[in-house]
Amino acid sequence: MPWILAATAIATAALTAPGPAEGAHVSVVVVSPAVAVERGARGAAGLLVPAAGTRVSRESALAALVRGRVQNSRLGEPAEGKARIALRRRPAAITFYVSLPPPGEHTNDRRYPIAVVGGGYGGLLESSSTRIPGLVSVADVAPSALALERGHDPVIESRPGRAAQAELARLDRRLDQAHDSRLGAVAVLVALMLLLSAAALLRASPFLGRAALLAAPAAIASALLESAVGLARPGLAVLVLALLTTLGSLGGARALDSRLRLGIGLAGFLAVFGVVLAVWPEVNALAIIGPHPDSGGRFYGVTNLVETLLLVPALVSGALLGVRWLLPIGALAVLVVGASRTGADGGGVLVLVAGFLVLGAGLLGARPSLRTAFMLGAATVSLGLVAVGLDAALGGSSHVVDALADGPAGLAEDFERRLRLSAAVAFDSALSVLTLLVSLTILALLWPLRPRSPVRTALLAAIAVSLLANDAPTKVAGYGVLAGLTLVAFEHTRRHA
Known about the structure:
The protein is an alpha/beta fold. The chain has 18 helices and nine strands.
């Protein structure tokens, strides 16, 4: 418990540093898209994501605009809380011209023009909450207006650019293309993981077992490569992803043909992935396997899908390289998923910490018991809070850090909201309920397989934590099954060899 108090104190101190003293009068005006585009030519222009989730209404967008926070549309209600700003009809020294969805409910697949005039704004708008040049969230406007009024640094800033509208048109097109390619990319990933796992088990082939293990890292790397070179046309992007992932899986299995090479290769993949997340967040954001900035769900970092798929490579790397390497590899995985500059995924921090603690206990020969489970659970929460607190103390800023800075009340509110969203996702339809039940059943059947594996036990423990800490239970359980099958294929063929 002292760790929890220390982490909270570190985060609070890091987040309450004073800013500049001088401010300016600011207005937020709701206008039509055409007017926002026209005003953008006088100042800075951008695209606004009006909601989080699959649906949006003008009512929910207005609530998010004045309250400075969004709520996932699956919860079926506008963002809670008091209005932080009042909308104006006249411009001021600095004016935000915001366009919103028309009356009624709509699919949340469209961005709306936004402009800021005055205060030195010009070119292309940028937001520290999205990290995608030109794209801002509706929840960024209120805190930016308040910060400018008080003379502090705003969330929404700008960078010079002579062809802002052309850049925004390209960005809007890329977001649409990534959205249209996502289902095909997931289908390719699922098919390859299943096919390689089945082939490895049927042929008892260690080579195919390694290929099955490498399918997820190869798909993530291929999607990043496509995004980096600008390959985005839906049909072509999915076809190339299938080709690159197949070649990457088989080529990696051929090259990483020893315990040491495979362990180092998996750890190297985690390190390179972390560098991309930190240095080129827009490459990850626009990848067809990655965040969903087009719907405001996550603008950067690691999604629940990717987080679940990273579990097996991270845990296997630690197991292959030995107990002495568990701490550095575990720290690397937590850094990639949880640091503000990379993933900013608080649930992912708890998931990985739990996985590596259970793996370490298994490799050291600890016997499963209620006492051991309780101790590992307490250590998971404590170390997770310490990790987030250190991130805040080192200058990290994200929604995870903000929740910790609000103290126990903020953490409880965030956890309660995640539980409600998880329930809404799980019971969204009969298919969702069936998918979750079937996936959980398969996961339960994986654990008693003989001989029991410390890595498999750690994976199942991490998935159990993820079901509580994250808000996508069907994805966590479904992709957890895929990850578990690739692990079984790898371990079985390795023992057979």
